Amino acid sequence: MNKKHALIGAAIFLVLAAIGWGFYSAKDPALVELEQLRDEQFAMRRELTEEQQEANRQVFGEKMKGLSEEQRRSFFESSAPIFMKMMEARLDQFLAKTPEEQKAELDKRIDEMLARQKSGGGQGRSGPPGVGDGNSPPTPQQIDQFRKGMLDKTTPEQRAKFQTTMQMYQNRMKERGIDPKQGGGRFF
Questions:
Q1: What pLDDT score does 16 carry?
Q2: Where is the composition biased (Basic and acidic residues) (predicted)?
Q3: Is 141 inside any structural domain?
């Protein structure tokens, strides 16, 4: 009888443990929704115009506003490989253009950044995504942690492309008499 009770007790324990594990390991519904939206937008990115992509980014940004810092960090960690591929593809497209086309693209991006600042849209969150609470600048420790994380998630080639493109962006801003430090905003 003791063996039978022990087996029943063990079976009940295993069932409860499985239920508990399933309950606690279930993904956050807000993150599941964002990850699904991210995956859909990533799959359709080549079929959309720049304006449609920007509209998608706006919708995405609105959904991100409601996340806690922990949710935001978790989302960016799960999304880093996808976002890096997207950014690298855009950098490759930009770097493949002629110097005249690159200059036109830089001017377009600078004009968009200035328009966002004028409309108050450039004054939103401070610092890199997934760092800080979205309303105040990130601490030096948060910035350092973000940089170290990006080193782990990027290749030297990706970092070189990004650095080259950002240098071109800043140089073009200087040519236009705009202080690059006021720039902020996103280029890609």
A1: 47
A2: 145-157
A3: yes
Q: Say how far apart CA 48 and CA 35 lie, in whole Å.
A: 19
pLDDT for 153-186, tens place per residue? 888 999 999 999 999 999 999 999 998 877 655 5
Whether 61 is in a domain gets the answer no
Residue 24 lies in a domain: no
* Contact in structure between 173 and 104 (CB atoms under 8 Å): no
Question: Would 48 be classed as within a structural domain?
Answer: no
| Least confident segment among 23-27, 38-42, 56-60 | 23-27
Per the structure, the count of domains in the chain is 1
What burial class does residue 90 get, using C-beta atoms within 10 Å of its C-beta: 0-12 exposed, 13-18 middle, 19+ buried?
Answer: middle
**Amino acid letter, residue 106:** L
Query: By residue range, what is the domain housing residue 121?
Result: 68-183
Beta carbons of 80 and 153 less than 8 angstroms apart: yes
